[in-house]
Amino acid sequence: MRASTPLSLVLLAGAFVVGHFSAALKVVADPPVVVPVSNEVPATPYVEKSDYSQRIVAYIHGNIPITREDLGEYLIARHGTDKIDLLVNLRIIEHGCKQRGVAVTNEEIEAAFEEDLVGLNVKRQEFVTVFLKQYNKTLYEWKYDVIRPRLLLGKMVRDQLKVSDEELKQIYEFRYGRKVSVRLILWPKGQEKLALQQFAEIRKSDADFDKVARGQADSTLAAAGGAISPISRNSNGDSRIIEDEAFKLEVGELSRLIETPTGMIVIKCIGHVEPEKTHDFEKEKPSLHKEVIDRKLSREIPKLFAALKAEAKPQLFLKGNTRQTDIETDTLRELNAPAPATGATPIPTTIPMK
Prior knowledge:
The chain is α+β, with helices and mostly antiparallel strands. It has helices at 21-25, 68-80, 84-100, 106-120, 124-134, 139-158, 165-176, 192-202, 206-214, 219-223, 240-246, 281-312, 327-336, and strands at residues 56-60, 64-67, 179-188, 231-232, 258-259, 263-273.
């Protein structure tokens, strides 16, 4: 079984587990503001003189120049203001790295991208033409606005992270220990009354459960009849509550209605998976260690960024309507979900899997 890729690492370009660094780099919609909120006039920063903004990007009529500054103003006027938060956050990260002597190379970015593709189980071309196109992102943006900041922040905190033998054993059990096969029904926020009504129905028979499972709001779950990957011990974050309920169930038994940040959930046990005994703990230690570190990074990176941002005290004077996408969050959730068994689907991305 492929080990799940922990949640804040694939995109942590500001993706802060699920409200993670992606939330930190995600653009927040605000009404246009052209003056500081405060009447206090900030000190004029020192700016080194340069002709960079006046460099020519094009000519018309043979001798009329169009400069980088012209191009910049053109882009800002049309769709540039929604990038200000992202740019400021990137500069905050870069400043913190410069103070600590931290840097990443293009080779490291490319290696991390290849690892992300493995975690998502997609080819490079499919990732570009399907995934990035869906969110109107370029491969350059993905590598340098998502992967690079994640790597920089990771390097700043990695040396502080320690791994105990107990943590290694927990991850070993998560990967290879006993599991519970379940089917799941999710009622999104706002459907609590429907959840209570249908909960009474699905308890009557397997056929009633199947009918509701195949008609539920989440299309991925509905298509699989609610089947998800087997649930393990020592999962991370909000999924623990689902894990605890699953391990109480006998085959054919329904859980109670479980309240989660995403909505109401009920799970039905359809079997138990015995532990895998072919994996030696000592031989697995290097990959187990990496997984523990990745989990810790997903928790510590948001904290570090919050501290860097508080220290930087950013002041933004140019604001505008923004386009909000959850590309980092969605991908993190996908990467965190365990690989599905045949005929099963991972726990849906609408359920936080930290």
